Amino acid sequence: MIFENKKEKYLFTLPAIFMVSITIYLPFLISSYYSLTEWNGIDREAKFIGLENFKTIFFENNQFFDVLIFTGNYTALFMLFSNLFALIIALVLVQKLKTAKLLRGIFFVPYIMSMIIVGFIWKFIFSQGFARLYEITELGLLNLSWLGNSELAFYSVVLVGVWQQLGFYIVLYIAGLQAIPGDLLEAATVDGANIFQKFFKITLPLLGPSITVCMFMSLTRGLKVFDIILALTQGGPGGSTYSATLDIYREAFQYNNYGLGSAKAIIFFIIVLILTQIVLKISRRNEVEL
Amino acid sequence: MKRNSRLKINYFILEVIAIIAAAIFIYPVFLMFINSFKTFREVIIDVIALPQQLNIDNYFYVIDKMNYPRLFVNNILITAVGITGIVAFSSLAAYIIDRSRSRFTSLAFLFIITPMLIPFQTFMITLLKVMNIINLSGSRVGLGIQYWGFGIPMATFIYFNFMKTVPKEIDESAFIDGATTFQTFIYVIFPILKPVTATVIVLDVMWIWNDFLLPLLMVNDSQKTKTLVLAAYNFVGQYNTQWHYAMTAMVLAIVPSLIFFVLLQKYIVKGVVAGSLKG
Amino acid sequence: MRKMVVLLVAVMMLVGTFNVLAQTAEIDIFISMPEYADPINELIDTYQEEVNNEVEINYETTQSDYPTLLKVKLNSGDIPDLFASTSGKEIELYKEYSYDLSGEPMMDTMLPSVKKAMADADGNGVYGFAIKGNYFGLIYNKDLFAQAGIEKFPETISEMETAIEKLEAEGITPFTSGFSEWWVFKHLFQHFLVAAEDDVQALVRDFENGEASFSDYPVLEDNFFHFVDLVVEHGDNKILESSLNTEISQFATGQAAMVIGQGPWIEDSLIQIDPELNIGFTGYPVSEDPAESQVISGADQAVRVSSDSEDLDAVLDFVNWWYTSDYGKSWFTDVAGVVPPIEVEIPEDYYQIIQEGIKASEEKGSAPLAIIYSTDSFHSAFGEAMQTYVGGNATKAETIETIETKWQEIDGSN
């Protein structure tokens, strides 16, 4: 290949590598050092304590495991609903509907809004909006305490997370669907395949690349969920909706344990790394190259 | 044509269902809009009802309080600087990584995209420390430059995925004509990547324009450097008991991106689709 | 390749230098309490117009995440000249960064109780000043109580139970709680804490060292939880969704008769909804002893002067002017509308809650501000534990255990 011995492969990747290094890797490495210290985030000096923080996390307190379980549950539901609904809506919106273009736009609107603002709006809806809607409709569902009950609050957070991101995945799936050659589907119709056969035998396998991208994106975004919870429940009620990132944030800034928070961050990063590699491997294997 | 008319009815039903679903979906946003036109009393008494009159006093008040035009300029500047670097550096990196498949480039690729997995909250204190040392904190251009680092991982990932579908014969023919690698990239490859670039720009504009935590750390110090979302956030914090102003501030924060989206919607969808069709 | 690095670094340095070209004296103010943003802007404008137009004053405020942002700034060396914390316990936490104001002219006007709240752990120095004093107690709707035929506001828990019955007989919801806010619990709890022990600071210290426990104090173990139960039972529908906003709208629209955990700071919002609202304010009933039902007064927030300030003199001039000039002194009541932290006359037609607070403390005395002896780090954990209790996900015994543990873990000296 013509590129093998060229210096361009270094030169062209350098700006990207450099920027990523100073904005992400360097601060992350310094933070990693703090995971080996006891530091409240305020004193001018941090005290080196070796692996004590990791010991605390693994052996003395199972709070971080609860938080990881919450994050895992959230991510699983978030991935499932985002991809499922996005695919269904995308399938509808690629049909010959008169309003298809407008509807695509509408579903994309929440995605262009700041997550903090999305959180605020939904807080308003769950409290004031639902209360008034209940008075009008008397639908029992609306009278539940969606942010006040710790189990319901979990679903509320998932709902808002999916609501905000759905449009993004819809656009990606629509793109994938439109890339499928129409003659393939027509040929199948001629052969007498019904709509489900066409979907499972032709559409779904050919959507491989879109599914890979969407799965990967929803996985990393699900795991890193932060802003929405911050604006919506602030981890409440009673600490039941703390995600891993929010817990790290709380440990470092609210409880003044910057060292311990950094140690949690390292562990969390490793978990994320492993999970994403697995998902990438699995979905790559199922892809069908056109 | 019996089959045809049945098909028409099916489409009609499907359309109605889709419209209802979309209406429910967008209702929260609608609610925010109508409440921004109400007085405080109206909001407290009934949040669902339409405003009694189209009262735009809230808007005058909030625009003046937030110093809206200034914020708008700040956002444009930060976003523009950010996007330029992200597009330039990511496309360049993705191009060479795809074309020159070696141990170095696959490591470089991994190195560049891995940060997508590092939660930002885990290094924000030390990030500000580093940015203070190289003087990138507290300024709009500085914040824009920081976005290069945070945007490159995903942009490179997207460019790379599309790069794979661009036939190598294209650059080979350019080389035969005597072009350097860089020239080939600029004159041949980058134009081909245009639809993908559109996608990257759109996605990153949405992200940078609406970003919260990074601007909060870097430019929240001064009215002169603040972003729109930050101002709205502070405003909601300050007036959190006065929903009518809070709603107005939120509407004002999202309206620019809404306009941006409406104007470019065709381009967004087209960009994504065109990129995919290259496969 | 090297060229590229040099170019990138050069671009950054260039951008950087534009930021460094600083002006003359500059005061960076970064404090919480955004509800006073307008009055503070007015104060700054007046200072620049009347006293010193050379100095540049940058004022920024935020409510959420304030401690986070402050820590980030302190650590990155970007220390604001004026910053905020809570008073009392947190004075020690940021002492390293704070200037001791005890030799300054502003000491002449500062109330002794405010000075005391600004002292370090050993009781020395004045490491901050207050923007406002404060009252804590129970806000109630006088008209609704009259409507229910309750002549005297309940001072004991059993009187409160009777009052609840009467209110409910009239179809009035007795309480609105704000239990989704962690800080509402600390405001409520302190009234029981001061009833438990005279020297509340010593009591808090014992809790931090694990030497005190709820079981020694029936007023904490029984009365406090009983009161919370009453609020849950006779309060808002979705109790853990009830926020500050809920409290304001429920109370101001006459749907609830009493507001839990709030004080003078909500009066403006209440009056905006109903200007005719007839507001009462008094201590919580905490036991069967009427004398223990007292309002609490004191300064719970501190503004600190950075000891590292590059323009320390300019900063001190400004804050001394704030506390000693005629405009500055009248600012607290005329512009900000707060409980003044200095010795100054209160106007006669002042806020109802503040007037009621003054009246109540003249009649029955006021209790010391207990919340300042613990950090907000602990208080947020405390609030979380109480929310878990209110949500029915933990028993009273489990909740008490959590609180006692957190108190030692977070605020105790390891």
UniProtKB/TrEMBL annotation, chain A:
It comes from the Bacteria. Gene3D superfamilies: MetI-like. It is found in: Cell membrane. It is a multi-pass membrane protein. The keyword Isomerase does not apply. SUPFAM superfamilies: MetI-like (SSF161098). Keywords: Cell membrane, Membrane, Transmembrane, Transmembrane helix, Transport. One of its GO terms (cellular component) is plasma membrane. It holds the Pfam family BPD_transp_1. The chain crosses the membrane at residues 12-34, 74-94, 106-125, 152-175, 258-280. Residues 68-279 form the ABC transmembrane type-1 domain. CDD domains: TM_PBP2. The keyword Transmembrane helix applies. One of its GO terms (biological process) is transmembrane transport. Its main location: membrane. Belongs to the binding-protein-dependent transport system permease family. This is Raffinose/stachyose/melibiose transport system permease protein. It comes from Halanaerobium saccharolyticum.
TrEMBL record, chain B:
Coiled coil: none annotated. Its main location: membrane. PROSITE patterns: ABC_TM1 (PS50928). GO terms for biological process: transmembrane transport. It holds the Pfam family BPD_transp_1. The chain crosses the membrane at residues 12-34, 76-97, 104-125, 145-163, 184-209, 243-264. Residues 72-264 form the ABC transmembrane type-1 domain. The keyword Glycoprotein does not apply. It is a multi-pass membrane protein. It is found in: Cell membrane. This is Raffinose/stachyose/melibiose transport system permease protein. It comes from Halanaerobium saccharolyticum.
TrEMBL record, chain C:
It comes from the Bacteria. It holds the Pfam family SBP_bac_8. It comes from Halanaerobium saccharolyticum. Residues 1-22 form the signal peptide. This is Raffinose/stachyose/melibiose transport system substrate-binding protein. Transmembrane segments: none annotated. InterPro entries: Bact_solute-bd_prot1, SBP. Keywords: Signal.
